[in-house]
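Tokens in:
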């Protein structure tokens, strides 16, 4: 497994990790990111769920054999920005209403509910980044 970790500069720094685009990589992304948030003294619950959803989407829908995905956490004022980049720039996330008895398809609804805002960015080719911003106070 390819893993590269960048340590933050103080509490309002950045954290980045590159992991294999697998279910195991997605679980590890959530664990490592949650531990980083804990070390910064930041609230975990909403951010951990958003990180888990975006990392899982990168592993499941952004998977390209032999390629990794990258997660980046940045803290600005009272907002945590979560960015997850994968190498399936041709496959953009689409929020949809799943059937009531469906066991999947609610991830982006959860991301939208827990985030101040979210979106996607293209590039560099063939990459796309799905990002979300989670309020750290008063949400």
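Residues out:
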């Amino acid at each position: 497994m390819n893993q590269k970790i960048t340590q933050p500069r103080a509490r309002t720094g950045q954290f980045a990790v590159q992991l294999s685009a697998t279910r195991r990589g997605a679980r590890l992304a959530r664990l490592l990111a949650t531990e980083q948030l804990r070390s910064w003294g930041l609230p975990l619950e909403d951010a951990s769920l958003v990180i888990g959803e975006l990392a899982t989407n990168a592993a499941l829908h952004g998977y390209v054999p032999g390629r990794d995905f990258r997660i980046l956490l940045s803290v600005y004022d009272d907002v945590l920005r979560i960015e997850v980049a994968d190498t399936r720039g041709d496959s953009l996330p689409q929020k949809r209403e799943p059937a009531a008895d469906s066991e999947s398809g609610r991830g982006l609804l959860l991301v939208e509910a827990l985030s101040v805002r979210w979106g996607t960015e293209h590039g560099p080719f063939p990459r796309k980044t799905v990002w979300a911003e989670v309020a750290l106070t008063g949400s």
